[in-house]
Specification:
Blueprint lengths: L1 E2 L7 H16 L5 E4 L5 H12 L5 H8 L1 H16 L4 E4 L7 E2 L8 E3 L3 H8 L3 E5 L2 E3 L5 E3 L5 H12 L4 E5 L20 E3 H9 L7 H10 L3 E5 L7 E4 L12 E17 L4 H11 L4 E6 L7 E8 L1 H13 L1 H4 L4 E13 L9 H11 L6 E5 L2 E7 L3 H11 L6
Parallel strand pairs: 1-2, 1-9, 2-6, 3-6, 9-11, 10-12
Antiparallel strand pairs: 4-5, 7-8, 11-12, 13-15, 13-16, 14-15, 16-18, 17-18
Bound molecules: adenosine-5'-diphosphate, aspartic acid and magnesium ion.
Amino acid sequence: MKFGGTSVANIERIKAVAQRVKREVDAGNEVAVVVSAMSGVTNQLVDWAKELAPLHDAREYDVVVASGEQVTCGLTAIALQELGVDARSWLGWQVPIKTDDAHGKARIVDIPCDDLNRRFAAGQVAVFAGFQGIGSDNRVTTLGRGGSDTSAVALAAAVGADRCDIFTDVDGVYTTDPRIVAKARKLDKITYEEMLEMASLGAKVLQIRSVEMAMKHRVRLQVLSSFEDKPGTMVVDEEEIMEKELVSGIAYSRDEAKITLTRVADKPGVAAGIFGPLADANVNVDMIVQNIAEDGQTTDMTFTVSKGDFDRAKQVLEANRDKLVFRDLISDSNVVKVSVIGVGMRSHAGIAQRMFKALAEKGINIQVISTSEIKISVLVAEEYTELAVRALHTAYGLDSE
Ligand code: ADP
Ligand code: ASP
Ligand code: MG
């Protein structure tokens, strides 16, 4: 049972979490609990580190931001003990949740759980601090924002749990973010693949890596509300879904920025020349478009990066200006990527056309398009985010009654 930030936001909420866990224990289940920091705490901690030094030491960043989960995991253990439940807190290093040394975005490599299994057998509830682990450098690591989801799935996989329940402030996975589309519909089931696309395309309800891991280790994953007592959304194999929707969801990501290099040479090696230095600087490039060379010699190259990499990307390109040979570097961070996702796309034509038509009817200009087997993404001006998501939600018949 994983509880996110709003679910442990204060002492009252932590008491409610303890009650919810106790119910599960009383029903005869062996339970492990993973908690996030109280909502807002991680943001505050990140801001403090940034305030001291915009480019701070990632090891110290981890020491700071991991503290939020230490507080809630101790408090949750106390709350459970108050209800007469045998509970014990576990920090990342105590388990240990072993990760690589990529501080700030570490990956879990191993969770030895003999000790945990012994405690399960003895009927003790383990309460884990989410988001944190320990690197091979013997220092605290964190798993990237939203990483408690991944802690929970990894622990569920390690102990061979029957299910991993992610309790949050919405009662499941919706056809789109319910906070921006009132007519969003809750899905009873969604496939791992669709959930993975939704998460990577901006739906922050589950961290991407948690879905990857659930898919790989076949962990039964449920997203549900910690505020209401009702079934949530199950993330399942495609075979478990009888009626496949053409499109099951719309996602958006504001974390995008667009760069265009004009008049680059249209000859072999140019793309490698541009994207090589960006990769070396650890800049992730997402959508890429290259036009044809109208004059037979030069063309424009447009691509997107995350807002966090935007300045670095521009710096790298300017620094390599002599080698790359382009006329202008045009950049724009007022963009949003809106995507439609659905496994039904594999076998149906006309899905993209419906998207383009719906956007055109609202007068929304499409700047870049990219597709994969089960998704279509477009880049549009940021001011159209809500309008575009709502229009697409209606166009694909996803609106609730
Ligand atoms: P927690 O703190 O519990 O981890 P998050 O804020 O990380 O919670 O994730 C839950 C939020 O995800 C919801 O409040 C909702 O606004 C957002 N969200 C975005 N897209 C979706 C979606 N398709 N379905 C459900 N929630 C979504
Ligand atoms: N507290 C961390 C964050 O806000 C991890 C999590 O909540 O999943 O990103
Ligand atoms: Mg989250």
